[in-house]
Each structure stands twice: as C-alpha cells, then as structure tokens.
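Structure request: PQQ-binding-like beta-propeller repeat protein, Streptomyces microflavus.
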Amino acid sequence: MPRPSQPWELPPPEHRPVPGNPYAAEGFGPPVEPPRRRRSGRVPLIAAAVVLLLLAAGGGVYAVTGGRWGGSAAPAAPAARKTPPAPETPSAPPASAVPAPEPKRIPTSAEINAGRKPGEATAWVVDDPTDLPGRSILLHDLWVVGDTVVQAMHRKVTAYRLSDGAEVWSVPLPAAVCETPVDPTPDGKVVVVYKNSQAVHGNRCNQLQMIDLRTGQAGWQRELTETGSLDDTIIVHTAISGDVLAVVQGMTAAAYRVGDGTELYDIPMENPGKCYPDDVAGGPRLLVSSNCAIGADRSKSYSLLREIDPRTGKVHWRFRTQAGWKVGKVLSVAPVVLTTLDTADIIGNWRIVALGAGGKLRTTIDARPKGFKYCGDSGDSGQGIQNCPGMVAGRNAVHVGGTGQVGAYDLATGKLVWGVKSEGSTLHPLREENGSSALVYEASRPGQEGGIIRFGPGGVDTKKQVLLHPRSARPTEHAMLAGRLAYVNGRIVITPSIVSGKDTEREARMISFAPENP
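Returned structure:
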C-alpha cells in the first residue's frame, strides 16, 4: 500500500535528489527564501508604474521636415565668396558612412524543430517585422478563438494560426492600443481601446474599436466622452461579460453593448463622494471594484467589490475589505477568488480570499509562510485587476507559483494541499486538473529546457512530464521571460510582456509548443 504523501516533506530514497532531477522536495516547514531575482517579463511595482505612465503619455514619433521638428524648411544661407581650397587632411568618414547596427536575427521555426530530439515538443516562432518606435512596447492580453491566437501590439491586432504560427489576419489602428479586456464575448468579439493621437504628450486612452476575432473584421468605433477629472481617460480599464463591455474611466464606470456599441447604463456608484469605481473583472461574472474612504489616512480606506448583472446593472452582492486593506487582483470570477493588500505594505502583506454564495467570506489564505510571493514573485505590473501571473484559481484550489516553488491551497479549508520546491526554476501554474492537481509551466533558463509538468496531492511524488521543449528553443523561449501565457488543447503559447523597439534588442514576438502528435 503506497504511503500517504505530505506537502513539503522529504521524499523517500527513490525520490531523493539525483543529478538532473531538480524536483525533490526539501524538509518540512517554511522553505528557505531563494534569492530574489528578476525573472519575469514584468517590471517591479514602482518601475512598472513609471513605464505605464510613460506608455500612456507617449505616442508616435515626430516627423522631420526640412531639418526642423514639424516646421518648414530653413532658409538657404547666402552664397559664400570662393576661396582657394585648403590642403587636404585626413578626416573621419561622414556619419552616413558608419554602418548601422545589424538587427538581431530570430531563428525560424524550421531551425528550432531541426534541433529537437524524439519525444520533444514541436515548435513555431513568430518573427514580427513591424517597425516600432525605439522604446519599450507593451504586449496585451492573449485571446484564443477557434484555431487562432490573437494579440494587440502597438498599432495593430494580429491573429496567428495555432497549428503553425502563420499570420491569418491583422487589423491596423490609427494609434497605439492602450487597453484590452482579458475575455472576449462567447461569440469571439472584443473591444480594444487605443489612443486618440500619436502625439508624445497629451493623448488620451479613449477610442473604442470592436473587432470580430473569428473573421478579423473591424466593427463599430466610438469615442469615450470626457467631461472633467472624474471621468478622464488618462487610464482606462475594461472587462467583457457576455455581450457587455464594462469601462472604468477616471472615477466613473459605464456599460456598453459589444454587438453595436450602444451605451446601456452607468454602473451605479456606492456612497457617492466616498466610493469610486477603479477596475472591472469579466468572464462568467461581471465584478466591479471601488476604492472607498479615500484620504490621507490610508488606514481608514477600504475596497468594495460588487457583482453586477451585466444586462441590467443590478447589484447582486457586495463584499467589503477591512479598513486599511484593498482589493488587489481577481484570480477567478467563478468561483470568486481574489487577493487583498495591506495599504501600508502592498508588496509584503497580502492574502488570498475566496468568496462563497452572495459574496460571503469563505476562506482567507496566507501563502507567505511557505515563501510564496505576490503574483508569482512578479509584483503588480500596474495592469488590469485580472492580470496576476503565477497564480491561478480553479474550482477546488488556488495554485500559487513563482521562483523555486509551486503549490496548491484548498479553497474550502485554506490549507496547503501540496507543495513542490525546485531551486533555480520558475514555475507558473496554467490550470487546475482533476481535483487539486495542476498543469505547471516550467520556464526555460540557461542550462535547462522549458516544459509542462503535472503535479498533484503528494507533490513531487506525482510529478509527470507532460511536455518537454527542445533545447534548440531555449534562448528564444528564455528571452520572453514567460511574459504572457495561454494554454489550450495541449499547446502552450508564450509571448513577452514588453518588447523593445530597437532593432539590436529585438526578440521573437511569440513562440508555441505542442506534442508532436497532439
């Protein structure tokens, strides 16, 4: 009879560390915290806020006309009197003669697959030749619709075929995309928000564009109305639930029909003057987060989370955090699982909260004693309320990953079900399977290929390698730093979260792996 396995316990001799096996658990109890290192395509909290503000304020490029920024040609200088030529002296070649740096070369799909061994995953890679401004460009949410994966980058939305990465369609936009919802409608429509100009300063995130992700056809377009500071569009958050788009702009929120762009209703404000909507989460349910009791004394502020009927705007239930705490991220809307943050220490003091029927508190989970970091050790990138890499909630458990470890906490009891430590690895839960088991992406790193592993109750004893990525893909995959992930039908799609517009720093746009015979 097999012995019962306990999380974080030392495995039996047949499972203890051997060369090439990094998946043996260590002793029971809180793990030794690994050295904190930059391991994600996201930037730390403070840096991210600066980057995002710059991205929000930044537009396109200046046009140079006749030697002036956007002006007319300079007047010609008067002709000079001819003088005898000076004796020739050696001089540096003109600047135009200095060769430009060579763009970084991206390996092709064929080159990566040529290096794979039997049993390893097949791969495709996208080398996007789009000419980008010479700065960091944000890549937005991944949508999988039909047999395509779709993503917005800079001034276009592009669909790639899942089977081979070939571009299926692309929708160009007048200016850079500044916001996308996590979920499309059930019939594959989405609304992206782009800026009102390409100017470097003074632009707004206020242009709505509906796109049918199944056909690549652009539908209706409209501009968000802005009347003052309460509904400004410097920063906008969106979510889709059913056929309804919820938009938070400034301190107000409204709902629109995705099908035709009709404004349906203003999302009601709780305690006017005291609570203001600040974000939305979509999918099977529509949740609205509000910031309340805003003031100099952060110990008195709190968050209010509400479920809204997307068709009518009726409030189904309310959940209020304790004073001095705020809603961080929504990990799942069905069941409702979220994080809360101490406003006095939003980086170090956080919890996972599961809600039951009617928004009632079900369990509170503190994953910090086992060494887990917020959002898989990536912090808060400053993006929407549903973007939390390294943490995934299923029906039965919440799965928490990060640098060197991954584990699962039961949503009913709040207890750790299983945990695995793997020094040097970065582990990202992808989805829950069979109770509290999970598929986990192990990001590639120097000296180690990436892949997908299944873990369950019993931790390291249950390890099963589901997919092993080829060694030939390691540099390309590692450069993406697991920025954004999508998993569907045995295939994983990986992109960076930020790409550089400099040719010499260019990396692949997207890479995907699947079994040889899916």
